[in-house]
Here is the input.
Amino acid sequence: MRRVKRLPLEVKAQIYLNQQQKQANVKLASGNLNTSSEWKSARQTQAMVAVLKTLQKIMGMRERCMYCLDSHGSDIEHFRPKAVYPKRMFRWRNVLLCCTECGRFKGNQFPLQGKRPLLIDPSKEEPWRYLDFDADTGNICARFDPHDNAYCLKGEKTVEILQLDRREALSTGYLKTYHRISNKIRRFLDESNPSAGKLINELQEADEHGLLGWCLIGTGQNETPFLELRLQYPDVWAECKAVFYHT
Here is the structure.
């Protein structure tokens, strides 16, 4: 999982969403709103095709799911479920690109702590503040917070709902990416005249699962070989963080 930057929606599609939400709100107030049929009807329009294409564009050429980053993002998913939050059904900032498996696991689940969502929204927050990666198994798990002496609740709930620690194909993909990134950094450390620009390009190509977040700002920064890069080449480390995470 990684933080994704939401692009602006084209004007016609945004106008369509606004109109559909207004109509849905009227039906909701009169008790005549069927969220499933309302969404199914709207989903067939060209405006919604434009919404899907914009979500796919956000995810680049691979068009990966915004939750797992492993499978192809095949459809529009509501972060806050439309059945529970019908007033957000057509809100641009409430829709994500999702694969079939993540969509099936999530369903209408949306845990809260007070009014705060306990599911990570990758379009609004940095997932690796709440998640950790097990380099032995390839599983995604909740990050331990030493200040609270407990695992991050948002990380725990996200892992639980999307079953990020129980999907064999997912862990295999994450492990492959982890080894690719690690090997790129090890080669850089072994070079007599290493190039920061070359490393950055190679890391960008190698990272198919958003693991650079774990390496650079998550707990991975204290693991081999990321720790060696951070200590031996602090300027290169800072440049990598600036390029990938604008810090």
Observations:
- Residues 11-110 form one domain.
- The chain has ten helices and eight strands.
- The chain has two domains: 11-110, 168-245.
